[in-house]
Design a protein that fits this description.
By secondary structure, the protein is mainly alpha-helical. The chain has helices at 2-51, 58-71, 75-109, 119-148, 152-200, 211-245, 248-261, 263-286, 293-325, 332-346, 350-358, 362-386, 390-416, 421-448, 456-485, 487-492, and strands at residues 113-114, 117-118. The protein is 85% helix and 1% strand.
């Protein structure tokens, strides 16, 4: 019990450190670039999300297969699988890198402007993306291996340290050389991170492929790749569509709002990283998905409280931050208020989707995602007809997408774990209730608690009062939910051997 709590604390702490430095980095970048150039950074971050998927599911297979082998006592086989998987990932990444440069050089090198964006900047960004893609695949695979061997503190602290170094490099070089300096800082930090990780984990970096092992990993991982790639599309489909349907200026405002609103997603990954391998091992021990039900119910009860708390902090914190240091992005405040409601629900899908993947229910997971994507495509076409602002229509549509996805994934995961229909919906309602309560309270506060006065003291005082009032209103609900579920009891249910 003590070990799990300690690891959970450090992983969660590292996630908040990463969130903190990410906020600082992106706020400084937004201030340096302004709405006139921030859309290039939005495109850069969006491309990074998709280049991270070039392992084609091999890393996802590692999340499942490495702990399963250890659960069966086959520690040496787990290590051999890891070595072959690493070699296969780097081979695939190299092929994708070469193809990207050839195609990108042809498209961007023969044009002055592409869809309203400077082709020269896009081509320079492509070269940087290729280097980052190669380096990050090395670092992220080694972090994966550390997590699957339950070295959560080491992996999380290493990741946090790399983000701090990256932030320093991007800000320092960006303040001197602008957008180009930011690219250079990101590339240099990724290269340093990969070099350190390879040096510290030399036995794992063994470039040889065992065909049988690689085939096994592809067989296990490619279906996960399809489903996870679809999940990535769900989380980023608004900005993907925005590159086509929004102007560069509109994308700057929307991209900044999405970046701020999605910060809680990073925090929710701490739960998945800690409890994912635990759930996989439990499944390996029992062989029955029904054995996961109580663990999922208890973990989700705490996730519901965390989601509500993060919704409160993000919305109020973002409003104050923009008013104080980013007045040129004032249009993003209303977008953040709408998007954050959907994100509060989206983070609740983290553990249920992990359960579906670990339990091997890929078809159900994929069908769920396809249906949700189809719905949001309809929303992106119809909601702008109902609202005067196209950007706000994007925000509302995306929030609806996240809510539907979260509810559907929780229902499917509980069904897979054997929960009766009535219990499923009662559990979903209890998990979502804190976020619904906070969302309603924030909407009321936004309408009745209006800032008076100008200047930093007036704005800071207003936001402090707003936060204090919000916490006072939310405190009774949080205490009731806490006493109902109990933090200690919830975590104890997640320890193998304790029920």
């Amino acid at each position: 019990m003590g070990s799990l709590l300690r690891q959970t604390f450090f992983v969660t702490l590292s996630r908040y450190v990463i969130i903190g430095v990410s906020v600082v980095r992106n706020v400084v970048i937004a201030r340096l670039l302004g709405p006139d150039q921030y859309h290039y950074w939005v495109l850069f971050l969006l491309a990074l999300v998709y280049t991270d998927q070039v392992h084609f599911g091999l890393r996802h297979a590692g999340d499942r297969e490495f702990p399963l082998e250890r659960g069966k006592g086959n520690h040496d086989e787990a290590f051999r699988l890891a070595q072959s998987t690493f070699t296969a990932i780097m081979t695939l990444t190299t092929v994708v890198a070469i193809l990207s440069l050839v195609i990108g050089s042809f498209v961007f090198g023969t044009s002055v402007s592409v869809a309203g964006y400077d082709a020269t900047i896009l081509l320079n960004g492509l070269w940087g993306l290729v280097v980052i893609m190669l380096c990050d695949q090395v670092g992220r695979f080694i972090l994966l291996y550390l997590r699957t061997t339950k070295r959560f503190v080491l992996s999380s602290s290493t990741e946090a340290a790399s983000e701090i170094i990256r932030t320093i490099g991007v800000i320092v070089l960006g303040s001197v050389y602008g957008l180009t300096g930011m690219f250079i800082g990101y590339i240099a930090s990724s290269f340093l991170f990969a070099a350190v990780m390879m040096f510290a984990n030399k036995p794992l970096i063994h470039f040889s492929i065992d065909t049988a092992r690689v085939k096994r990993m592809f067989k296990a991982g490619f279906p996960m790749f399809i489903t996870v790639a679809t999940s990535v599309l769900i989380m980023n489909i608004d900005r993907v569509a925005g590159t086509v349907l929004l102007t560069p200026s509109e994308l700057s405002y929307y991209g900044f709002a999405a970046m701020v609103s999605l910060m809680p997603v990073s925090a929710s990954q701490a739960w998945r990283e800690v409890f994912g391998p635990t759930i996989a091992e439990r499944l390996g021990e029992s062989g029955q998905t029904t054995a996961l039900l109580q663990s999922l119910l208890k973990a989700q009860s705490i996730a519901g409280l965390l989601a509500a708390a993060l919704l409160l902090l993000v919305v109020i914190g973002a409003e104050g931050m923009i008013q104080l240091v980013l007045p040129s992005f004032m249009e993003a405040i209303s977008l953040i208020q709408r998007l954050s409601i959907g994100v509060a629900f989206f983070v609740l899908a983290s553990l249920p989707t992990a359960v579906l993947i670990i339990a091997g229910r890929m078809r159900q997971y994929l069908m769920l995602e396809i249906v949700v994507i189809a719905i949001v495509c309809v929303l992106y076409l119809t909601v702008p007809l109902l609202l005067p602002s196209k950007v706000m229509a994007f925000a509302v549509s995306t929030a609806i997408l996240f809510i539907l996805y979260s509810i559907a994934s929780m229902e499917r995961a509980l069904a897979v774990c054997g929960a009766p229909r009535t219990e499923r919906w009662r559990s979903i309602l209890s998990v979502c209730f804190p976020s619904i309560y906070v969302a309603i309270m924030l909407e009321v506060l936004h309408r009745v608690y209006i800032v008076s006065g100008v200047g930093v003291p007036a704005i800071a005082g207003h936001m402090a009062g707003k936060l204090g009032l919000a916490l006072l209103v939310c405190a009774p609900m949080m205490m009731i939910m806490y006493r109902r579920f109990g933090l200690t009891g919830s975590l104890s249910m997640l320890i193998p051997g304790r029920r």
